[in-house]
């Protein structure tokens, strides 16, 4: 039986990735009008795949469509942040509980190595803020993987896209990165102890403190 060849990614998906990264990198800050004509010219494409890409980002909550005004990068309100953080706390606490039972010793050793890299990235002498953001998210997503529930992970991925609109602000508070690292250590220690209640509580505390820094 001949295997069906993989189809190339649709152009609108590539454009969506490009726009998404510009939004996350603050090249298109919250509240920015998305100038379709200028962007289409910049990318050398028609406006059709661009509009399809904008629909994808609108479904993710990164773009807001305004009647007769076009598309804008979403501005996240304090209420939006509270709702997102509350849901993330519930979902990721549940994943941490499950990981206590399902993760192997090797899995937890890998998670500890990831945290060591995160600590190094936070070092102001030779670390990188962008690397810290990348590793911070990877640490959380790895716990979700260890919880073995793809539907829960998909919900978290969608919510985290909205949270990223404010992530720089939440970690810009003086001392917040050090606090975040300490909270990650508490999560890791609870997972190693196979204590689901402590793991879930450590995750909830982490998000509660993150929300307090963000609003």
From TrEMBL:
Signal peptide range equals none
UniProt keyword list: DNA-binding, Transcription, Transcription regulation
Matching entries from PROSITE patterns are given as: HTH_GNTR (PS50949)
Is the keyword DNA-binding assigned to this protein? yes
Q: Locate the HTH gntR-type domain: which residues?
A: 9-76
Matching entries from InterPro entries are given as:
GntR_C (IPR011711), TF_FadR/GntR_C (IPR008920), Tscrpt_reg_HTH_GntR (IPR000524), WH-like_DNA-bd_sf (IPR036388), WH_DNA-bd_sf (IPR036390)
SUPFAM superfamilies noted in UniProt = GntR ligand-binding domain-like, Winged helix' DNA-binding domain
Q: Which SMART domains does the record match to this protein? A: FCD (SM00895), HTH_GNTR (SM00345)
In its UniProt record, a GO molecular function of this protein is: DNA binding
Q: What is this protein called?
A: Putative D-xylose utilization operon transcriptional repressor
Q: Which organism is it from?
A: Tepidimonas sediminis
